[in-house]
Backbone:
């Protein structure tokens, strides 16, 4: 584990108590002689003139701390993975599968991480999507879905060059195991432990009962071609980035060589998280 000299902060500015927690964390690192860098919204909240843009922050620090919800973490996850910078997500929202560390376990988690506990660092699979000459990285999922009008779209799909027939549907979700508890779960996909190498392909409301979510090997090469003539379809990456697709546009998806190093609380494991977030066993 590399030494930590600089820590960067990304926040959800309207989260309750975020300013208080941010100040506490700045004090924690200041006592240890670790430099803190604030992204723009965090700097604005504290009235600081020194700031780094969210896009540039991961390349300038050794650790990123996210104060917010899963959406806030997803907005920087791909950048952190590209720069091989670990991320600690502190839950300031309601659900928080990615920002899983609660407020009362933040300092215990930081003490463990700075003390060299590598067991609390979870390498998470990342997908890469190639289209229009650009490669995009995603921690959760890549989604193709229909526009605002209630009309289904048609896609063609190949897995390792084998064409797979896809019925008309509202769209398609290609997910990592980390993203299995996100949109894919809502579409009927399975829950998969983050450490299992796999890719989930889940249709969104397919126009046939026979086309069900499926799990394929993580080294699979998946190619999707949009065939929604006259219909609008959107490509969405981790629910944060996206654009309107063109007719016959092709997206190639595979597992990236990159990993996101996600830091978890030493007081809980993945099944504790599922029970807490999904309410298993509650009466």
Residues:
């Amino acid at each position: 584990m590399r030494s930590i000299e600089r820590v960067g902060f990304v926040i959800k500015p309207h989260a309750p108590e975020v300013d208080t927690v941010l100040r506490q964390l700045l004090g924690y690192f200041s006592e240890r002689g670790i430099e803190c860098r604030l992204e723009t919204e965090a700097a604005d909240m504290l009235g600081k003139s020194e700031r780094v843009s969210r896009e540039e922050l991961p390349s300038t620090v050794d650790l990123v701390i996210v104060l917010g919800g899963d959406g806030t973490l997803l907005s920087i996850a791909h950048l952190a993975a590209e720069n091989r910078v670990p991320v600690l997500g502190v839950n300031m929202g309601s659900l928080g599968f990615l920002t899983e560390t609660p407020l009362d376990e933040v300092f215990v988690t930081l003490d463990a991480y700075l003390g060299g506990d590598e067991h609390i660092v979870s390498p998470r699979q990342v997908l890469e999507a190639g289209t229009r000459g650009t490669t995009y990285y995603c921690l959760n999922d890549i989604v193709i879905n229909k526009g605002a009008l209630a009309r289904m779209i048609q896609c063609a799909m190949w897995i390792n060059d084998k064409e797979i027939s896809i019925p008309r549907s509202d769209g398609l979700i290609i997910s990592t195991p980390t993203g299995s508890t996100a949109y894919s779960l809502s579409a009927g996909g399975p829950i998969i432990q983050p450490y299992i190498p796999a890719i989930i392909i889940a249709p969104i409301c397919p126009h046939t009962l026979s086309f069900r979510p499926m799990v394929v090997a993580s080294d699979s090469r998946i190619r999707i071609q949009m065939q929604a003539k006259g219909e609008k379809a959107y490509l969405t990456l981790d629910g944060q980035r996206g654009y309107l697709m063109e007719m016959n546009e092709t997206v190639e998806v595979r597992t990236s060589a990159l990993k996101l190093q996600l830091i978890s609380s030493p007081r809980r494991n993945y099944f504790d998280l599922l029970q807490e977030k999904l309410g298993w066993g509650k009466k």
Observations:
- The mean pLDDT is 92.
- The chain has two domains: 6-117+266-278, 126-257.
- The two ends are 42 Å apart (CA to CA).
- The first strand starts at residue 6 and ends at 11.
